[in-house]
Design a protein that fits this description.
The protein has six helices and no strands. With 125 residues, the protein is mainly α. Helix 1 runs parallel beside helix 3, helix 1 packs antiparallel against helix 5 and helix 3 runs antiparallel to helix 5. It is elongated and about 100 Å long.
Length: 125
Amino acid sequence: MTQPTMPPSAPPPPPPQPAAAGSNRNVMIALSYLWILAIVPLIVEKEDPEVQWHAKHGLVLLVAEIILYAVLAIVSMIPVLGCITMFLPVLVFLGFLVIRILCITKGMNGQRFLIPALSDFANRF
């Protein structure tokens, strides 16, 4: 009696590949533009000049946003101007949110989003 032949077994699957180096870079670039979290990539990724560039720009963007909110708070205390400019904080927030989203998407694609005046100031550091 002949033994039935078994089909050859499939080779074992290859071992999982380690995470790409760019995945950590993408996380750090995204953190660079999330308000105060920009400090994390600035401290953690000291060897990566690209992440450092994005972190510095994220911090400058945060400082510019805080200054603009402070100016709006002062202007809102003026009786007539306060009534006229009461909707501006929402527009400022939406504007900075759009800029942050653009910076994150460009950064993850390996590009840089230059913000006039702010990028020049951030490049000094």
